[in-house]
Here is the input.
Amino acid sequence: MNPPPTTPQVLPLTTQDGCTIRATVYPTAQPARAHLVVAGATGVPQGYYRRFAEYASARGYRTMTLDYRGIGLSAPPSLKGFRMDYLDWARQDLAAAVQAMASPDLPLVMVGHSYGGHAFGLLPNHDKVAAFYTFATGAGWHGWMPPGERLKVWMLWNLVGPLATRLKGYLPWRSFGMGEDLPLDVYRQWRRWCQFPRYFFDDPQVRPLLDGFHAVRTPILAANALDDWWAQPRSRDAFMAGYRNAAWQALDIDPARAGLGPIGHMGYFRAHAAPLWDNALRWLEAHARVPGGAPQAAS
Here is the structure.
């Protein structure tokens, strides 16, 4: 029987550029086997990952979730007029979480969701992470999507989004049932990168900032459900090729064959997807190394 979860603790993190964001730590009720950071998706508040964080902490992973600046517990009173750089969710906010959770005694691992897979190569301290498992990471280009979803996304970027942001001063993502409202700069950068088949790797304005991806040597597994229209396997492969020097693996998840029910782009962290969490934690444990040491022994 698993020990009962301990009480999560909300705490502030201060980033290198002086921004304060809010994170939640889920302690273990047993000696920790590793530390784990959850790198969430665009516009998805950290509370969405609570079940997974509790699940991981009950299995010996001291786990941290966080809200990037402008989102959830890290949002300002109003997004209107709030300025930021989308890349700083990785370079500043997620980097602060990695710094807070890194330890000389235990390995640090990471689980990503969508943007979380984009963020890893932007981290200035990715070398502190022993192994990285990401769900639903893709290139974002509508051309990788099935025709019906392609049309919806085209309408979002070219009709709905421009009108909504002009009226509000930010993207009212919550009104569309898609997650938290998004700062205007996030919307604009996201929209731009989704015009390219390889996302920001094809953007000449950003390309010089992406050398960090070439430096990544961390083991990575990128898992995508076949019913995830926003991140089909070919979209994943187009993006993950940017981690050209990392030993990354691809995993295609067939929800029907696995008896999981629909997954889509958001179902990876719903309760019925717990078998996927087991697979991720087993893989991370097999690849996690104590800093300067050997992989942690599986129990």
About this structure: DSSP finds nine helices and eight strands in the chain. The mean pLDDT is 93.
